[in-house]
Design a protein that fits this description.
This protein is mainly α and 405 residues long. It is built from 20 helices and no strands. 74% of the residues lie in helices and 0% in strands.
Length: 405
């Protein structure tokens, strides 16, 4: 199964599950179901994996079996919910597990899914709490690679939602230099994707040269990593296409070439049931289309992104889609006005705000917008006043909550 051979691997695991049921070994049976559900998810067969897990859990409940693998299987189930875009459902599952098994040895796995789901919803306090749970500080030094990978995914995704790109780049660089990630490519593909996204954001205009240099370093490490890994199944192939597009963005390729990369990534995600991953690719494709002058495709994509994000409760993604539509001067529904600039900001203040969220100085803001540093300072002061925050860091956090990032 790990090599992507579903035709040969699945019958073997199903045979083992059947044998475990015959000899009434609930732990072996649950472990088999957990592994099968896990591999089916990794290969893009989410609904089939979910059916396997839920059938096993229901059977154990009906027979009164308290399998030691029940928590692990609920975590696998929650991961599928997360990847299908049911963020609230994923949180319900893991929060129920944490209420009933707060000291489980599988807590690392459960906390990671909780943090990822909460971050995708924009609930950063909950995501941070999950990452600070007892024992979390030891997760990155665990002897189990899947614990390290899940913990890294949760940390990185939370950092990016919080706008802490420098932190995400530092963690990415350290992991890429120290860990043999290609040995467990199932979780490494989503890790490579989020690390490449950190590099893309770190290389964006307005970032410091130190951040941009680290972004380029992470880009090189990610590019080297993915050459070592196979991409089995539709999900891993879609991650592969997204990583290629993000790397191309760091390289500063021409808009037409970048649009081609993101169009291919969108097509790859369309072959999976992973709604929010598809929406994320469409958002980047829309940005590339705007840069390339293809406003029609950009508008179609950004509206699809906003609809999916709203339906899934992905607040940061919905805000990003609304911000792009606003910049395009278009409504999120046909024949409607563009979304209003939040917090009473003017159009120029919104431009300054986007640069403020990436840590730009007044001089950098002035250079990007062709205004004087003094004028940039005035805009920043106005933004702080309208947001009712004391400093630039607090303003950046609030602006990200409003989708201006």
């Amino acid at each position: 199964m790990d090599s992507g051979d579903l035709e040969r691997g699945r019958p073997l695991i199903e045979e083992a599950i059947g044998y475990a049921a015959e000899i009434s070994d609930p732990s072996l049976e649950a472990r088999g179901a957990g592994n099968l559900g896990h591999f089916l998810r990794e290969l893009g067969h989410h609904e089939e994996g979910l059916a396997v897990l839920e059938e096993s859990l229901a059977r154990h409940e009906a027979m009164g079996w308290a399998s030691v693998h029940k928590t692990f299987n609920h975590q696998n189930r929650a991961e599928i919910y997360f990847e299908l875009g049911d963020l609230a459902g994923a949180r319900r599952i893991v929060e129920a597990v944490l209420r009933t098994h707060p000291l489980s040895k599988h807590r690392y796995y459960v906390d990671a899914v909780l943090a990822r789901s909460a971050a995708a919803q924009g609930d950063l306090p909950a995501a941070r709490r999950a990452m600070r749970a007892p024992g979390r500080s030891d997760a990155l030094t665990s002897q189990r690679m899947n614990i390290v990978q899940l913990s890294l995914l949760a940390l990185l995704e939370t950092d990016l939602v919080a706008g802490e790109v420098d932190d995400a780049l530092a963690v990415s660089e350290r992991a890429l230099e120290r860990l043999v990630l290609e040995s467990a490519h199932g979780y490494t593909w989503p890790m490579a994707d989020v690390m490449a996204e950190a590099a893309r954001r770190g290389a964006a205009p307005g970032r410091s040269e130190e951040t941009a240099a680290r972004a380029r370093r992470v880009r090189d490490l990610v590019a080297d990593l993915v050459t070592l890994m196979p991409a089995h199944g539709t999900a891993q192939q879609a991650y592969q296409m997204s990583v290629a597009a993000r790397v191309a963005a760091v390289d500063g390729v021409e808009p037409a070439a970048l649009l081609e990369r993101w169009t291919a990534a969108v097509a790859a995600w369309e072959a999976t049931p992973m709604r929010l991953h598809l929406a994320g690719a469409r958002l980047r494709a829309a940005e590339a289309a705007v840069a390339g002058g293809d406003r029609g495709r950009a508008l179609e994509w950004v509206r699809q992104v906003h609809t999916a994000a709203e339906e899934c409760g992905a607040v940061p993604l919905a805000g990003a889609a609304a911000d792009l539509a606003r910049r395009m001067g278009s409504g999120l529904v046909e024949d409607t006005a563009p979304p209003a600039v939040p917090a009473g900001l003017t159009a120029r203040e919104a431009e300054v705000a986007r640069l403020l969220t990436v840590g730009s100085t007044n001089a950098q803001i002035a250079g990007e917008l062709f205004i004087t540093p003094k004028t940039a300072s005035v805009h920043v002061s106005n933004i702080l006043a309208k947001l009712d925050v004391p400093n630039r860091a607090a303003a950046g956090a609030r602006l990200r909550e409003l989708g201006l990032a």
